[in-house]
Amino acid sequence: MKLQTAFFCILLCLTGLLSFFGCSDSEEPSALSLLNVSYDPTRELYQALNKAFVEQCDHEGLSGVVVEQSHGGSGKQARAVLDGLEADVVTLALGYDIDVLCSQGHLIPADWQSRLPHNSSPFYSTIVFLVRRGNPKGIADWGDLIHDGVEVITPNPKTSGGARWNYLAAWAWAERKYGSEAAAQDFLATLFSHVPVLDTGARGATNTFIQQGKGDVLLAWENEALLVLRDYPDQGCEIVHPSLSIRAEPPVALVDANADAHGSRSLAEKYLNFLYTDTAQAIGAAQFYRPIRPEAAAAEDMARFRPLAMVSIDDFGGWSAAHAKHFAADGIYDHLPRKRNP
Amino acid sequence: MSRSLANSNASSQSAHRLAMGLGLTYMSLLVLMPIAGLLLRSIQLPPGEYLRVLQAPETMAAFRLSFGHAFLAALFNTVTGVPVAWVLARYAFPGKRLLDVWIDLPFALPTAVAGIALCTLYGPHGFLGAPLAKLGLKVAYTHWGVFIAMSFVSIPFVIRTVQPALLNLDPSQEEAAACLGASRLYCLRRVILPELLPSILTGFSMAFARDIGEYGSIIFIAGNIPGETEILPLRIVHALECYDYAGATVLAIAMMVASFLLLLLINLLQKRQTS
Lengths: 342, 275
What we know:
The complex is a heterodimer. By secondary structure, chain A is of the alpha/beta class. Chain A folds into two domains: 33-123 and 249-302, Periplasmic binding protein-like II (D-Maltodextrin-Binding Protein, domain 2); 127-246 and 312-327, 3-Layer(aba) Sandwich (D-Maltodextrin-Binding Protein, domain 2). Chain A contains 14 helices and twelve strands. In chain A, helix 2 runs antiparallel to helix 12 (278-286) and helix 3 packs parallel to helix 4 (95-103). The longest helix of chain A is centred in the first third of the chain and has 24 residues, at 2-25. Chain A is globular, with a radius of gyration of 22 Å. Chain B is built from 15 helices and no strands. Chain B has helices at residues 2-6, 10-43, 47-55, 57-90, 96-102, 105-108, 111-122, 129-134, 143-153, 155-168, 171-179, 184-213, 218-221, 232-241, 245-274. Chain B has a single domain (56-274), classed as Orthogonal Bundle (MetI-like fold), CATH 1.10.3720.10. The longest helix of chain B has 34 residues, at 10-43. By secondary structure, chain B is mainly α. At the A-B interface, helix 3 of A face helix 14 of B.
């Protein structure tokens, strides 16, 4: 008993010490530090970009710049910013999550998306299929996903930006293929009956597919799929390009209210403009994001991006309309008939 | 208790007040105020919202899953926890200290770590998951995964409440029972178990409460499919992530009321046992 008490005391002291140093270490937001609140699979991208940005600032005589990053499901990150996470810039998976910062929190102006070129999206990506070695289930297009015995892995459209792009790409294909909205709805209901696990974020779904070996096909961001090919070469996964996909634009924005409070507006603007420079575009392409200016990227990086027929969010009437119709409470996703996997 | 009250003088009374004040302030800040905030939000909602959220078949399914499996897992831990507590209290064996510390591990382990560990173990290619899958029993990504995760996080409760009760048990009672000719089993049933029942119930209710609220480990090992393997806390998170604050509030209130009623019931049962 004495031993346990002593052990407990030591543990308590250690915890105290740790929290003490933890507190003294943490930095107040300042004009020289930025917090970039981003979505799930962009860890590697922004690590590389932040490093280049800090180097560039050093070159220009602006030393001591720190860019911190935070990652998670896109919706969750937007809500964290709404609830007071002091992001100077947000780089989220879809425009809707940034719209919310305006409509619910008044943190940014309504015209945020037109403040930077290309809908404020310096990079874009698309949705592809990742299949197991040799494509044993013979998956070539969306229609093959609902064959008997095929297990599809996608995150939950309620929580994941990537999953919403997956959903919309599938919808666009089905609507064109079967010619009606009702048929598209039916296709999606069948598709989701083939999904055994709904993770909250894209990275979680990738882990389920790769680490746990669950499922036959992963619906993924192209950048995430290319990252898997690079990082897990022994898995022998292959990318399948469907006949139609979606131009998935993850936009970036300055969070005016926070940046002004921190006095970091000019640095934050510099950071966002940096994403459009040749350096950043080349880094983006090397990190598997399609750059908006391909000429800035290395040819071997660009060779990885297969030309692909894509719809865009504008075909759905923009994010507000798409969200209200499909993903809001009582939207189409909520009312997809729940079919049992045969 | 009565002696300390009889001896009470001015200084002990002010100490008594101080302790009472501290306790109440602490409780209010940490427990009552957040719950009051939730209640305040909930009464501002139109009744239609309650109907919309609670009538959804997925919500009903999530209720059944969360409460049903929490009950099963707590029951499982009660049935297995009592013998473990017995072993720890009554026998000496090498490595006992280690085992004793081990039992608390699920308390300290981050639930996400527990979830990933369980998922790796019971996944389709896992050490246990692969042979079980051969037998046609899928654990990970089914409702059994929910049960496993819940059982894991609530292991310590019954053991930790029953163990001290067993240690405090007066051996003379058992000896008396044996002298009067009671068999070992009869003695267990009629002498020991009644003594332990209050602490077993306490352990059970704590495990049950913990399981209802568990989130972190379950979402890794459950499939999270609405209507099948989606637990209530996850439904609340989903509502929040769609900025559906009203829906989240309704679910939270419903969960709280149900948990409160069930815990109250267990408490009453316990009162009846002790009196």
